[in-house]
Amino acid sequence: MCGLFSFSPLVLGTSGYYNPDYGIALFFIFIMYFFLEKKYILFTFWSICFVFTKEVSAIIYFFFIVGILMAKFLEKKDEKVGNSFFIIFKNPVIYISIIVGLFYLGYMKYIGGITKWKQVEGAGSNFTWNNDGFNCFGFNREYVILKFQQMFIENYRWIIIILAFFGCLLILLFKKKLNLSVNKYLLFSIVLSLLSYICFNCLYITFALVRYNYISDLLIIIVLGAVSIFLCKLFS
Questions:
Q1: Rg of the chain's alpha carbons, rounded to an integer?
Q2: Which of 114, 105, 115, 122 is nearest to 136 (CA)?
Q3: pLDDT tens track for 89-130
Q4: Quick count: other Cβ atoms within 10 Å of Cβ 92?
Q5: Cβ atoms < 10 Å from Cβ of 152
Q6: What is the per-residue pLDDT for 46?
Q7: Which three-class secondary structure string do you get for the chain?
Q8: Hey, CA dihedral for 63, 65, 68, 74, is it positive or negative?
Q9: Cα(56)–Cα(137) distance, rounded to whole angstroms?
């Protein structure tokens, strides 16, 4: 999965310089790794770096944390509701997310409010709804189609999708020879992160730059690979 992302045409074509979209993909890998390793100090540090890289990263991170907590809660659904919530609040991830959220809200307060992130001085709020507007939310059918083409077809994305599916097929064929595991909580949270990004990417009308899809490439590859491993464990 790492190879599919590292050698994708988008990464190879823009790896000569740093840009925020490359940063959020890189930092997301870091926070996943340190979450799995339970190295919570480093997880906190890279979480802060992640949410401050771009506005959309804060949305992705929010659903990433929500996914982890929801998965933990659903795992304990047969217990009393009070016990389930107690188990959630024993998870250090929730306190880390509160720390990260306070840092982010502090920065929003410093720049004048959560609606003040904008690319052009003197522009209005980014939180208006206008289907034919720019740098605002809205449902523009042509824009949504373009975004889906960028995420799944254009700029050789179709090669990445095919290779990811091919890798999943190989895992299913040779599952008896492989000793693989998947973290259900992490998979659930990554799926939520991917869905949140797709919704934001399609509903927030702005420049249709290809590099904005760094994070979707990474999340799609991880989800396809993890789902194939999970299915192997489920039906083996």
A1: 19
A2: 115
A3: 777 888 899 899 898 888 887 776 665 555 555 545 567 888
A4: 11
A5: 14
A6: 94
A7: CHHHHHCCHHHHHHCCCCCHHHHHHHHHHHHHHHHHCCCHHHHHHHHHHHHCCCHHHHHHHHHHHHHHHHHHHHHCCCCCHHHHHHHHHCCHHHHHHHHHHHHHHHHHHHHCCCCCCCCCCCCCCCCCECCCCCCEECCCHHHHHHHHHHHHCCCCHHHHHHHHHHHHHHHHHCHHHCCCCCCHHHHHHHHHHHHHHHHHHHHEECCCCHHHHHHHHHHHHHHHHHHHHHHHHHHC
A8: negative
A9: 13
Query: What's the pTM value of the predicted model, to 2 decimals?
Result: 0.79
Span 41-93, pLDDT tens digits:
999 999 999 998 888 899 999 999 988 888 777 766 655 655 666 767 777 88
Tokens found for residue 196 = 């949140």
